[in-house]
Amino acid sequence: MYTQAMDIPGGPKAVAAATPEEAARNSAFDARIAADLKIEPRDVMPEAYRKTLVRQISQHAHSEVVGMLPEGNWITRAPSLKRKAILLAKVQDEGGHGLYLYAAAETLGTSRDQMVDALLAGRAKYSSIFNYPTLTWADMGAIGWLVDGAAIMNQIPLCRCSYGPYARAMIRICKEESFHQRQGFDIMLSLCKGTAAQKEMAQDALNRWWWPVVQMFGPPDKDSVHSGQSAAWGIKRISNDDLRQKFIDATVPQAELLGITIPDPGLKWNEERGHYDYGAIDWDEFWRVVNGDGPCNRERLATRIEAHAEGAWVREAATAYAEKAAARELAGKRAA
Amino acid sequence: MSEKEWPLWEVFIRSKQGLDHRHAGSLHAVDAKQAVQMARDVYTRRMEGVSIWVVPSDAITASDPDDKAELFDPMADKVYRHPTFYKLPKEVEHM
Ligand SMILES: [Fe+2]
Ligand SMILES: [Fe+2]
């Protein structure tokens, strides 16, 4: 998902308390988690819990911010003023989502600059899905319908996350997300009801996005290293495979309604399970993209670096202006 | 990074005339004026507000979570401060 790199090795591990005081604090924390109470910024929490959240929330924030790039690519080429206004609003929302999440992470004692630095230096991860190119207008439909649809499935359980500021950010985000999915589906619907060429364009977008979206939910549960601890801490409420299944079950009838075909010959309803069975997922591709070798990894990072560098003069000028204004106000007060 | 990070502000939004301002979130801005402008862009894109307050985050003094019991537990056994504590005779319909 937006934080799928949480499932790769190398994260903080829970360690045994070093002192009796620490053990007492940890057990107070465990009791709150067990009672399903929220943890707030200044409450005591184990260091590994704090570090895990900083990692997860910042990855989530980076995904929102980098996620603006594939769609930003089509703003100037939207087919109508209405579609342009909608896409612009959607991309602006994603920037806002990044901000809510960075702010939530900052309550854990990290700074915005540290997080942005980690992203720009290539030390931080963001979702694999944003390393795929947006080749046609139909990709705006497929992204809203599938990528935002998948994001909603993942983000709804996060609204109940044990860390208060993260949960509150997710509630705000979820409220905004459902418009994202609907506008995407609306684009797909228009294309599928249009000319043969338009419908073909919608099918092509589904063909290219389907597997990367299914991979977005992260590695299968059996290979997902941190899931157990995150579940115990009330950070992760539903497993990767369960969310993936839920997404596929919800999406198949929508594709049928559009009249386009999901590119998985293994997809079929399993009466016994009450779910759709699906074909083998190419996890080699997933790991390739996560580890930096997707179609657009370099381009995305280079674009972020450039945007940050080109905005430096604005940040500096604003700071200089604010300092000058404050100095002037102070001088005025002294004179009075 | 040699640049100075912009200060953090807490944002409070009045969603409707007649209601309280409520904490909406936080953001970075160089000064109060810019914080209000940014809060408008970030927190009121769907008519969520009719008024905005911004407060420098470091101007807020918060109670210590460690004092929670000392501060708030004494109120737990004062049920007589609530109207539901009092049983009224059936004949008294509204009070
Ligand atoms: Fe988002
Ligand atoms: Fe979205």
Protein described:
The complex is a heterodimer of chains A (336) and B (95). Chain A has 336 residues and is mainly α. Chain A has 13 helices and two strands; from the N terminus they run H-H-H-H-H-H-H-H-H-H-E-E-H-H-H. Chain A has a two-stranded antiparallel sheet with strand order 1-2. In chain A, helix 2 (47-66) packs antiparallel against helix 4, helix 6 (138-158) runs parallel beside helix 8 and helix 6 runs antiparallel to helix 10 (240-258). The mean pLDDT of chain A is 93. Chain B has 95 residues and is an alpha+beta fold. Chain B is built from two helices and three strands, in the order ββαβα. A three-stranded antiparallel β-sheet of chain B has the order 2-1-3, with helices on one face. In chain B, 19% of the residues are buried. The A-B interface holds A 40, 42-44, 89, 92-93, 96, 99-100, 103, 106, 111-113, 117, 168-169, 172, 176, 312, 315-316, 318-319, 321-322, 325-326 and B 1, 3-6, 8, 25-28, 30-31, 34, 41-42, 45-46, 62, 64-65. One fe (ii) ion binds next to helix 4 and helix 7 of chain A.
